[in-house]
Design brief:
By secondary structure, this protein is α+β, with helices and mostly antiparallel strands. It is 40% helix and 15% strand. It has 10 helices and 10 strands. Strand 9 and strand 10 form a beta hairpin. The longest helix is centred in the N-terminal third of the chain and has 16 residues.
Length: 260
């Protein structure tokens, strides 16, 4: 695999996931603007496990390449440019070029929520270790990081601390995790801060064991006192009614849902 000397990003060939919209993502016949946070591996793993067509396996593998190879220094970008035959390069369209912030924060969150046996979990948690180190050094989540130089700027809103909880927990960063929880206790997310609240909904729901994902990306939810689900892929209407009917007997095993 060659290296793009202009930006430090690797050259590879990828199979693109469906673009989010007909305009704004295809730059030319040979270049595209991509957002790695639109590629939670749980979703790609589930699709590839449910469909026999090998294109889905290739799509999942290519999505993982996009996530990993767009972060040469271990910091996810908000946006990245891919050029056929040249590989990835830093985004030159965004207002803040080559930076990861308000979009990229979701990349770390999705990675932290992967099942311990998920095929991409170990690689992603290791690849983004530099972000965990930066948070440990600063004591807070930076508002943005230059993905090429690693230079940070700003102090992120409290919602970023929420989003990073699964990632820090999955990596076993106990001291850093505690520090971000303490920060949230002192500076809680405001009730009208929509995006921060959404990040917190995902992150705290996972931390409080309200839901989780299977090895293949299926969704497990705590519903009426019992675990069932996995994206309803294996659950027939009969099995769903059975799970609901047995929920009371499983209620004693309900997780602690208090906010940590």
């Amino acid at each position: 695999m060659a290296v793009n000397n202009s930006g430090g990003l690797s050259i590879t060939r990828v199979i693109f996931p469906p673009l989010p919209a007909p305009h704004g993502f295809k730059m030319s016949d040979k270049s595209w603007r991509l957002n790695p946070s639109y590629l939670p591996m749980q979703l790609l793993d589930w699709l590839s496990s449910q469909h026999p067509d090998p294109v889905w396996q290739k799509l999942a593998a290519s999505s993982l390449k996009i996530i990993l190879e767009s972060a040469p220094r271990g910091f996810a970008p908000d946006w990245i440019i891919y050029e056929d035959g040249k590989g990835f390069r830093a985004d030159d369209v965004a207002d803040k070029k080559a930076e990861g912030g308000y979009d990229a924060i979701r990349v770390y969150m999705w990675a932290g929520m992967l099942d311990p046996d998920a095929p991409s979990r170990r690689r992603l948690l290791a690849a983004f270790a530099p972000m965990a180190k930066v948070i440990a050094r600063l004591g807070y989540v930076p508002e943005s990081v230059n993905i090429i130089t690693g230079e940070t700027s700003g102090r992120a809103l409290s919602g970023f601390s929420s989003a990073l909880l699964p990632f820090l927990s999955a990596r076993g960063e106990r001291a850093t995790l505690k520090r971000q929880r303490d920060r949230l206790a002192v500076f809680p997310v405001g009730p009208d801060a929509y995006y921060e609240q959404v990040l917190g909904l995902f992150a705290h729901g996972w931390m409080d064991k309200r839901y989780s994902f299977t090895k293949n990306g299926g969704l497990r939810v705590w519903w009426y006192g019992g675990w069932y689900g996995a994206c309803v892929s294996a659950a027939s209407p009969t099995s769903a009614r059975s799970a609901s009917g047995s929920s009371k007997s499983a209620a004693h095993a309900a997780p602690n849902t208090s906010r940590r």
